[in-house]
């Protein structure tokens, strides 16, 4: 069982999340429900959870400020938040997980499954990156945090030529001819890169940087030739949308 603590200042949000977890995530045991960040902080230190669901906007101390009390993160985190475009972008670029309120049961189950599959726990540097981004919200995002089996790497998005799916992992091929394997599905990497408008899903197995395309070759779906000399198949269903971008 995954021991979880829920932290949210709104009682109805705690109640709703508790009900959803019991119905859709039977592998989660709720060990505490906290109505403030300070209460949550004490519960985390005392009960040593495997996972916390953390609301971002709370009076007094918000969810991000709560995390500043930890030099080492020994638990998984799923942020819960109402829509705040910049905060969500910062979370996504830091390779952290979040759920939008009202929480969708399917998205909840997917997020919990990641924890059950024992993905690498977040590291302090990811939160430092997140907090730095939030404190400098006029600073453009140009790098993403890419989780790997060893930790995570900071990669400039414009250095990525293409992304290739490999089951629950994704290979990122970079301009310098190196490859980074992310502990993320291609769908998750696509989500992380979507704010960089040059990245497009062209196939169920590929996301490409359009700035790195040198040629499109016609065919049933056709294929792309990239600046690194690789070729990437284009699916029939995505061909028309891709050609419109060109």
Automatic annotation (TrEMBL):
PROSITE patterns on file = HTH_LYTTR, RESPONSE_REGULATORY
Domain of life, per UniProt, equals Bacteria
Q: Which residues are recorded with the post-translational modification 4-aspartylphosphate?
A: 55
Residue span, Response regulatory domain? 3-116
Q: Which residues form the HTH LytTR-type domain?
A: 144-246
User: Mind telling me which residue stretches traverse the membrane in this protein?
Assistant: none
Q: Name one GO molecular function term.
A: phosphorelay response regulator activity
Q: Which UniProt keywords apply?
A: Phosphoprotein
Q: What is this protein called?
A: Response regulator transcription factor
Please tell me the species this chain comes from: Flavisolibacter ginsenosidimutans
> What does the organism's lineage look like at the top?
Bacteria, Pseudomonadati, Bacteroidota, Chitinophagia, Chitinophagales
